Structure formats: C-alpha cells, structure tokens
Amino acid sequence: MATLTPEVVRFGAKVHSAFEKKMNKIANLIASGLASSSEEERRTRTWSMLGVLIGGINMARAMKSTKASEEIAEAIKMSAIKAAGRIRATVANKS
After folding, report:
1. pTM for this structure?
2. pLDDT of 33-73, one tens digit each?
3. What is residue 87's three-state secondary structure?
4. Domain range spanning residue 86?
5. Interval 80-89: pLDDT, tens
6. Number of structural domains found in the chain
7. Are 45 and 81 in contact (CB under 8 A)?
8. What is the SS3 assignment for 24?
9. Around Cβ 26, how many Cβ atoms within 10 Å?
C-alpha cells in the first residue's frame, strides 16, 4: 500500500475506484477483528491505523539515516497499536 498509493493518485477514476474497493475490503477485514461497540468506531480506528502505517512507512523510507528511519518505524508501530485499540477475543485467542 505504501508504494501503491502515490501511484494511484496519478491515474483516473477507474483506478481510483478499484483502489477504493480493495481498500474497503482490507478495512472491513481489519475492522472485523477489532473490539468495539459499533461498526462505525471499528472502521474509524481501522482507517486511523492504516493511515498511520501507510504514511509512516513512506516517511521512514525517505529518511537518509537508519536512526531516523527506525525512530519513525517505532513511533508508527506504537501509534498503529494505539489506533487499533482492543481486538476481539476470538482474534486474540488465535495468536
């Protein structure tokens, strides 16, 4: 996703539509594993997590130094975990 997203922006409506369809599939799968009282909250947390991961990966990859890249990677990992919040018990038991 991190390398695909900037490329999708360059194309027309057909590619945007296909990308959106696939991203919604991915978001639905992730959201189904999160614990929450509402589907809307799970989807919000899912998009937050994906946004942090995709954007953060692009930032980390653009850094010259390994130290900066690793610092960003650790920060996005912690932010993504925080955005995801609790997971459903059935998902937790499988790991």
Report:
1. 0.79
2. 998 779 999 999 999 999 999 999 999 999 999 999 999 99
3. strand
4. 4-94
5. 988 888 777 6
6. 1
7. no
8. helix
9. 12
